[in-house]
C-alpha cells in the first residue's frame, strides 16, 4: 500500500460519519446587522455666525478710556481691579497656561486668531496666557504693528482683566502676559 492511499479503517470512519450526518441541514447564521450611526449634524451657520462675531468684536480703531502705558511697555488694568493684580502679573505670579505666536500673520489673521484663542481659553477655564506679537523687526518701518493693535484688541475683550509686557525670559517686549476672568 502506498502512503497516499486511504487505509481501510479511514474508509469505515468516513462512511460512519456520512451515515451520522445524513439527515442534517446546514444552520443559517442569525446575524443582526446594525446600520452605522449617523454623524451628528454640523451647525455650519452657527459656526459662521460665531466666527463673524469674533471678527466684529475687535476693532483696530478702539480708543480706550483707561490704560496704563509707560513708554513702550504694555500695561492694562480693567476698571475696578486692584493695582496688586497688575503688580502680580508683571512679577510672574500666575503660571502661563497657554500661548500663541502671531509671527508672520497679517493684521486680520492675527485679530481672528487672538479672538478664537481667548474664546477657547475661556471655554477651557484658563486664567493666564501669553501672546507673542513680535518686536516688529521684520515689518516695513521696523515698528511693531501687531503690538499696538493687540493692545487695543485686548482692551475690548470683556474676558481680559489685565495684561502686562512679558518678563525677559517669557519674550520681553515681543510678548504680553494676559490675565483672564475665571
UniProtKB/TrEMBL annotation:
<dbReference type="InterPro" id="IPR036063">
    <property type="entry name" value="Smr_dom_sf"/>
</dbReference>
<dbReference type="Pfam" id="PF01713">
    <property type="entry name" value="Smr"/>
</dbReference>
<feature type="domain" description="Smr">
    <location>
        <begin position="100"/>
        <end position="181"/>
    </location>
</feature>
<dbReference type="InterPro" id="IPR002625">
    <property type="entry name" value="Smr_dom"/>
</dbReference>
<protein>
    <submittedName>
        <fullName>Smr/MutS family protein</fullName>
    </submittedName>
</protein>
Amino acid at each position: 500500500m502506498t502512503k497516499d492511499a486511504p487505509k481501510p479503517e479511514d474508509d469505515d470512519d468516513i462512511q460512519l460519519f456520512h451515515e451520522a450526518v445524513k439527515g442534517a441541514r446546514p444552520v443559517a447564521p442569525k446575524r443582526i446587522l446594525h446600520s452605522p450611526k449617523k454623524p451628528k449634524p454640523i451647525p455650519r451657520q452657527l459656526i459662521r455666525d460665531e466666527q463673524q462675531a469674533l471678527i466684529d468684536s475687535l476693532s483696530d480703531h478702539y480708543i480706550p478710556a483707561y490704560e496704563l502705558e509707560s513708554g513702550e511697555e504694555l500695561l492694562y488694568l480693567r476698571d475696578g481691579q486692584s493695582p496688586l493684580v497688575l503688580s502680580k502679573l508683571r512679577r510672574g505670579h500666575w503660571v502661563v497656561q497657554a500661548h500663541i505666536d502671531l509671527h508672520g500673520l497679517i493684521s486680520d489673521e492675527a485679530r481672528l486668531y487672538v479672538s478664537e484663542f481667548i474664546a477657547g481659553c475661556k471655554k477651557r477655564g484658563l486664567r493666564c496666557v501669553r501672546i507673542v506679537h513680535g518686536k516688529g523687526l521684520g515689518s516695513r518701518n521696523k515698528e511693531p504693528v501687531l503690538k499696538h493693535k493687540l493692545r487695543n484688541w485686548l482692551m475690548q475683550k470683556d474676558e481680559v482683566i489685565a495684561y502686562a509686557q512679558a518678563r525677559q525670559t517669557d519674550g520681553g517686549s515681543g510678548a504680553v502676559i494676559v490675565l483672564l476672568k475665571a
